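Bug report (template v2)

What were you trying to do?
Predict the complex of my protein with P-hydroxybenzoic acid.

What happened?
Run completed; filing so the output is reviewed.

Input:
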Amino acid sequence: MVACMPQYNLWKRRRKRIDMRTQIAIIGGGPSGLSLARKLSLAGIDCRILERRSRAHVLSRIRAGVLEQGTVDQLRNADAAHRLDRYGLLHDGCSLSDGKDMFRVDFKKLSGKSVTVYGQTEITRDLYDALDDSGVAIHHETESLEILNIDTEVPEIRWTEQGMRKSLRCDFVAGCDGYHGPSRAAIPTSQRTEFNKSYPFGWLGILSETPPVDEELIYVRSSRGFALASMRNPSLSRYYLQVPADEDPTEWSDDRFWNELRRRLPEQAADTIVTGPSIEKSVAPLRSFVCEPIQYGRLFLCGDAAHIVPPTGAKGLNLAASDVYYLSSALIDYYLENNWEGIRDYSQRALRRVWKSMRFSWWMTNMLHQFPDRDPFDLRIQDSEFNFVRDSENGRRAMAENYTGLPY
Ligand code: APR
Ligand code: PHB
C-alpha cells in the first residue's frame, strides 16, 4: 500500500482539472474565432480561444483571398489591417470568358465598390499578431473538447491540453470551429435543419511563384470545364481547374496542369501565361450548406461551422466576417448597454445575409461549370445566363453588387 502512494498522488494530480472562467469561450482559432476575439477584446470583453491545432498548422492553410469592402472595413475596425492596407491589391473588376472571348465586369463603375486581393493566410497571421498585443489567451492543441450546459446560464467547455484536463465556464460560447468542429452538433438535432447541396466536381488548385497572367481575376467557362486565374500578389499566382470531385492531385504533374489550363483559358491569356513549378497542389470539393438556426441557448455559430459556400465568388471568408460583425455587435450591446436584442436576433440577422451569398455562389457555380448530367435544354439555359451577363449592363451590375459584397 505504502509503495503505491507516489503513483496514486501522480494519478490524482493528473486527474485534477484546472478550472477557468471567462465571458466568451471561443471554439476555433481560424479567421472567425480570431477576428471575434479581437473585436471583443478591444471592447473590453474577456474571452479565450480553444484551438485543436498548433499555431503553425493554422498558419499553413491556403484558402481564397478576395475580400469584400465590408470585410476590409471589419479588419480596419479591429485594428488588424496595417499589412492589408500596405500589401492588399485593389481590384476594380474581373473578367469572364467562355474560353474564347473575354469581357470585363467593372465593379467600380457598376456598384461603386472594389474588392481587395489579400490571402487568408496573411489575415490569419495579422489577427494572431493583433491578439498577441491584446493579450487574449489562445489554447492550442486542445483535445477531446466537450461543450456542456449551453441551455443554462453557465455553459462549460472541457478539454485536455498537454495531458491536463481543463474546464472553462463562461457566459456564452462562440462556435467558430469550422465545418467539422463539434459546435454545430451541440445543437440538438430536433432543433436544427441542415440544407445541403453538393456538386459533382471539385477544384484542383495550384500556387506558383510566377507573375499572374492578368492584373485582375479571370473566371472561365470553357467547354473543357471551369478555370480560374487568380493571384496572391504580383509574383504569386493561384490557378484552379474544375476536375472530378474524387480526383487525385498526384495524378497531375505541373506540366499536365499548365497544358490543361492553357487549353481552357482564352487565347490572349493562354499565349502570355508564365508557368513555373507549383508550390502547392490540392483538390477541394464544392458544397453549399446552411444550418438553421445558428444559435441555441447560449451557443452561437459563426463562419464555416454554420455554413459552407462553393468557392466560386470567394464568399467563405467574407461570410465569416459578416457573422462576426453581427455576433460581436450583439455581445458588445449586451455587455455595454444591457441590450439583448442583437443576441436574440443573431441567427435571423446573420442568416438573411448568408442566404443571399449562398444564392450568389450557387448562381456563379451553375453558370460557369460543366455539369455531367445537363440535358440540351439545360445547356441552352446555361449559355443564356452567361450571355445575359455579357450583354446586359444590369446583369453585370447585379454580379458586381453581389461580388463586392451586399450591405450588412
Ligand atoms: N476544438 C477546437 N478547435 C477546433 C475543433 C475542435 N474540436 N475542430 C475544429 N477546430 C478549429 C480548426 O482547427 C480551425 O482552425 O476551428 C478552426 C475553424 O477554422 P476555419 O475552418 O478556417 O473556419 P472559419 O474560422 O469559420 O473561417 C471561415 O475560412 O476556413 C475558411 O473556407 C473558409 O473562408 C472560410 C473561412
Ligand atoms: C483564390 O484566389 O484562391 C480565389 C479567388 C476567387 C475565387 C476563389 C478562390 O472565387
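What did the reviewer find?
The longest strand covers residues 193-208. The chain has a mean pLDDT of 95.
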